[in-house]
Design goal:
single chain; about 375 residues; mainly alpha; two-stranded antiparallel sheet; 2 strands; about 65% helix; about 0% strand; globular; binds zinc ion
Length: about 375
């Protein structure tokens, strides 16, 4: 059947994915027709689904894989439980895979879920065979996690934790509402299947479908639709270039509940040292990407060299203004910090700053209208 080069199948994973999918597709609607579901099924589904997915996005991904902030042990404990409930292996194992994914993104030989191997492989195929049997011997790319007692505890007891949460939580809720089977189907199986595939979309769809505002050096995309189903992880193009940022959707209007959770927890003292990328770096990356797209399109035009020269001049002007503006901004912040606030109010610095702000805004407009012509 299968070619000699293909590694052996992992039957346990195949059984879990296939049986849960079949139950969700067949038994869940059948039970709904014969017995009916109440509003409590829907509410508990949402609670359990959010608990699982946020444990993966805020815990496994932004905390353990990327260290974008620090979290109180109680929060790490919740993420460890939710991650086992999500049935995505231990945080240590997950982070090890994920760090390789970032380091060798799109490299078919090294990236464990390389999107260049196609939708199916990056979505789920990579978990169905022993593709990486020898990479997990020591988790040497996660030495920092070896010092995290909760992560190591979860790794050691992952199987009992996964079984206890996946059966225990739905059964407990079922006892509460007098419908054990209904809750096992909705909070157990349907929640698991949807939580699995919404997370898997980050590795598949978020590397295929969407825009590339920050870089086209890898396949990662920004996709607002995916962000809705993935608690904000749809802004994957941004994430792959600035992986140390606790945010994926950086603008206030971008839907990133994982970011909101991490930030809210910082007000309660549960998270700290939230890392963000300096604004100037973000804007530079964006302008560079727009430059490369525009100049590629200009190359098709008859007067390419002249247009490219003008484009590059505009780009350099923008870079210069950006550097000046952020430099001045730093000085302003410094002045305020040194309790020079009152002096600052009427100072020359303030005037220069306001002027520079306007200059930069004008330069941005001019740059944006230029690249828009060749987008
Ligand atoms: Zn990542
Ligand atoms: Zn990725």
């Amino acid at each position: 059947m299968s070619g000699p080069s293909k590694p052996p199948l992992i039957w346990l994973n195949i059984f879990i994915f296939l049986s849960s999918f079949l139950v969700a597709a067949l038994l869940v609607p059948w039970y709904g027709i014969t017995n009916g579901y109440g509003v409590e099924h829907f509410i508990w589904f949402l609670v359990a689904f959010s608990f699982c997915n946020l444990s993966i996005t805020a815990g496994y991904h932004r905390l353990w894989s990327h260290k974008t902030y620090e979290a109180h042990w109680s929060l790490r404990f919740l993420f460890a439980i939710g991650g086992a409930f999500a049935l995505q292996n231990s945080a240590l194992h997950w982070s090890s895979d994920h760090r390789i994914h970032h380091k060798h993104v799109d490299n078919n030989d090294k990236d464990p879920y390389s999107a260049k191997r196609g939708f199916w492989f990056s979505h789920i195929g990579w978990m169905l065979r022993e593709y990486n049997a020898n990479t997990y011997a020591d988790y040497s790319n996660c030495r920092d996690l070896h010092k995290d007692k909760i992560a190591m505890w979860q790794h050691k007891y992952y199987v009992p934790l996964a079984l206890a949460t996946n059966f225990g939580i739905p059964i407990a809720i079922g006892l509460l509402h007098g419908d054990i089977i209904g809750m096992l189907l909705i909070v157990g199986v349907l929640r698991l299947v949807l939580s699995h595939h919404s997370t898997f979309f980050i590795n598949s769809l978020a590397h295929i479908w969407g825009s590339q505002p920050y870089t086209d050096k890898n396949t990662a995309r920004d996709n607002a639709v995916l962000a809705v189903f993935t608690f904000g992880e749809g802004y994957h193009n941004y994430h792959h270039i600035f992986e140390n940022d606790y945010r994926n959707g950086i603008y206030w209007w971008q839907y990133d509940p994982t970011k909101w959770l991490i930030k809210s927890c910082s007000f309660l003292g549960l998270t700290k040292k939230l890392r963000v990328t300096p604004k100037i770096k973000i804007e530079k990356a964006k302008a560079k990407q727009a430059l490369s797209t525009a100049s590629r399109n200009i190359d098709q035009l008859p007067n390419a060299s002249m247009l490219n020269e003008a484009l590059n001049k505009e780009f350099e002007a923008l870079m210069g203004k950006l550097a000046d503006y952020y430099d001045l901004k730093k000085q302003v912040l410094e002045a305020k910090k040194n309790d020079l606030a009152k002096k600052y109010e009427n100072s020359l610095l303030k005037m220069r700053y306001q002027q520079m702000k306007q200059d930069l805004a004008a330069q941005r407009r001019s740059w944006e209208s230029m690249v828009a012509q060749y987008a």
